[in-house]
Amino acid sequence: MDKNFRRTVIAGNWKMNMTPTAAAAFIKELAPMVADADCDVVLCVPAIDIPAAVAAAEGTNIHIGAENVHFAESGAYTGEISADMLVDAGVEYVIIGHSERRQYFAETDETVNARTKAALAKNLKAIVCVGETLTQREQGITAETVSLQTKIALLGVSAEDMKNVIIAYEPVWAIGTGKTATSDQADEVCGIIRDVIAGLYGECVAKATTIQYGGSMNAKNAEELLSKVNVDGGLIGGASLKTADFTVIVKNG
Ligand code: 13P
Fold first, then answer.
1. Which residue owns the Cα nearest ligand 1 atom 7?
2. Given phi > 0 = left and psi -120 to 50 = alpha, else beta, which region is 46?
3. Is 98 a catalytic residue?
4. Residue 1 pLDDT level (bands cut at 50, 70, 90)
5. What is the reported pTM?
6. Is ligand 1 within 6 A of the CB of residue 65?
7. Are 50 and 90 in contact (CB under 8 A)?
């Protein structure tokens, strides 16, 4: 497999951090630091930060993403945000099915699939998260778990739409814990996901799909993780809240 077939995408996931004011200041500081990046640079920000983030990123190579999208076009879903709203606000990427959404907000493989299709229908780039829990890893069902999550997330997604799909492999046990998957573990599971995509869409689509690793990626371990053939970028939580650390990761992308 040749990495040249696909884009490397380094994306921050701010989670529930940063006010709109802080977001604008952060992006203004970050922009010159990552201006010469070889990879795609994305910041996925809280919904309320989106207008400030889009304005601050204008004219830079920083792309703005959201952290979730609802599956309906519009309607009686208090507190939710539609794909049309994100697009109109200048958002290009959206994280779907993060393990924190699955764990705390009853997100299921089926709703992940519905949200993915809703995002793709509006030409958003969907960063679809999959990953096993510690129990599942210990039970020896990592491959089965991520394969199932990937297959269900992509039900009804066309080969053509796969150009707007990024899969983020985020082992739940590595998120915010300081425990990173080894680069070999990350490479192995990203490779399993690529095989699933090859089974669904063929080798060409599999070769062209960006598969990120996420889970305690930081300025120290990014180079090693990103050197792996199946790891095409990162989805970064904590380290995306510090301009210097995030810049180091981007430079390795
Ligand atoms: P950390 O980088 O803080 O472990 O978070 C990873 C993550 O959940 C990104 O979506």
1. 237
2. beta
3. yes
4. low
5. 0.97
6. no
7. yes
